[in-house]
């Protein structure tokens, strides 16, 4: 699980990379669960929440940037 402070410290490019990595991990975990190979069931929930955290920070920055332009 990633702390929100660590996510906020990252740049936009780092957040995009992190989101891509998390989505790949989520896909792999779903694939493992479907084939019966997954042992760490809690990891699926943690990855889903990390994805939500990253997307939330990206949305906040997007809104802040658009409100600064107006």
UniProtKB/TrEMBL annotation:
NCBIfam families: L29
GO molecular function list: structural constituent of ribosome
Species classification: Bacteria, Pseudomonadati, Pseudomonadota, Alphaproteobacteria, Acetobacterales
UniProt cross-references to SUPFAM superfamilies, sorted A to Z: Ribosomal protein L29 (L29p) (SSF46561)
Key words, A-Z: Ribonucleoprotein, Ribosomal protein
GO biological process entries: translation
GO cellular component assignments: cytosolic large ribosomal subunit
Similarity comment: Belongs to the universal ribosomal protein uL29 family.
Cross-referenced InterPro entries: Ribosomal_protein_uL29 (IPR050063), Ribosomal_uL29 (IPR001854), Ribosomal_uL29_sf (IPR036049)
Protein name, as recorded: Large ribosomal subunit protein uL29
């Amino acid at each position: 699980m990633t702390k929100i402070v660590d996510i906020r410290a990252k740049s936009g490019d780092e957040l995009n990379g992190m989101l891509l990595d998390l989505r790949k991990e989520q896909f792999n975990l779903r694939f493992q669960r479907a084939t019966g190979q997954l042992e760490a069931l809690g990891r699926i929930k943690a990855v889903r929440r990390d994805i939500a955290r990253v997307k939330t920070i990206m949305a906040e920055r997007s809104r802040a940037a658009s409100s600064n332009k107006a």
